[in-house]
Amino acid sequence: MSLKRVFSSVILASVASAGSAMTLASSDFDASVAGWDAINGARDVTWTSSGGDPGGYLSAGDLRGDTLWFFVAPADYLGDVSSAYGGTLTYRLKSDGTSAPLLTAYADVQLLGTNGVRLAYTGGIAPSSNWSQYDVVLVADGSWRLGSLSGAAATAADLQGVLSGLQELRIRGDYLQAAETTSLDSVVLSAVPEPANALMLLAGVALLGGLLRRR
């Protein structure tokens, strides 16, 4: 391969790396529940090896009238994940029922920090019988609230403080007044690349360009 073609390949790879998100934790449920659980009245927490989006998936259900329940992330997602600020929490959901939605708005995602601060996110999520992807942006844009959805809007400092010592991450599984089963798949916590890393990549591209010109 010529140096020119090598240079072109490096440029493409470097630009892609500089602009893409960095995965901090992920769960595809292809082999197991991957440490996930469900709480607050959830029942029949089950791993299924196929039929997910793609591969395997995790599911749980509730009985009508039970407490609002959540999927709970394992330790891989916890601790100092401050680099996730500005990144996303992406996941896919589906539900076996769509009738009788809950009449009150509840948090779709909850974060609890070791500093005792709980954050609640609302994004109008309403899973259907087909897999749907949801992207929760980890930035103070008004979607995150202190304590509950009725709390004050979280500031950047609030969100960064929780992410610097994340103790619990919950994804809501209960969306109906009736009994239901909700399934979860393809959970990814990602961070945007640090500016310094992007600059180093671009500097490397510039260096290769100089070598090519000298040749």
Describe this protein's structure:
This protein has 2 domains: 39 residues; 172 residues, Galactose-binding lectin (Jelly Rolls, Sandwich), CATH 2.60.120.430. The protein has 3 helices and 12 strands; from the N terminus they run H-E-E-E-E-E-E-E-E-E-E-H-E-E-H. Strand 7 and strand 8 form a beta hairpin. Helix 1 runs antiparallel to helix 3. The longest helix has 20 residues. The protein starts with a helix and ends with a helix.
Record the SSE blueprint.
Elements lengths: L2 H17 L2 E6 L9 E3 L3 E6 L8 E6 L7 E3 L15 E8 L13 E5 L4 E4 L10 E6 L6 E3 L9 H8 L2 E7 L7 E12 L3 H20 L1
Antiparallel strand pairs: 1-12, 2-5, 3-4, 4-12, 5-11, 6-9, 6-12, 7-8, 7-11, 8-10
Helix pairs in contact: 1-3
The total of helices stands at 3
Give the helix proportion (percent range): 10-25%
Instruction: Provide the residue-averaged pLDDT.
Output: 85
Described by its quaternary structure, the protein is: single chain
How does the major sheet shape up?
6 strands, antiparallel
In CATH, the architecture of the largest domain is Sandwich
Report the radius of gyration as a whole number of Å. 21 Å
> Would you identify the CATH H-level superfamily of the largest domain?
Galactose-binding lectin
Q: Compute the separation of the termini in Å.
A: 15 Å
- Secondary-structure element sequence? HEEEEEEEEEEHEEH
**Would you count the extended β strands for me?**
12
> Would you tell me which CATH topology of the largest domain applies?
Jelly Rolls
Given this structure, which CATH class of the largest domain is correct?
Answer: Mainly Beta
Number of domains: 2
Structural classification: alpha+beta
* Strand residue percentage: 25-35%
Principal-axis shape: globular
Question: Which spans have pLDDT < 50 for at least 5 consecutive residues?
Answer: 3-18, 196-205
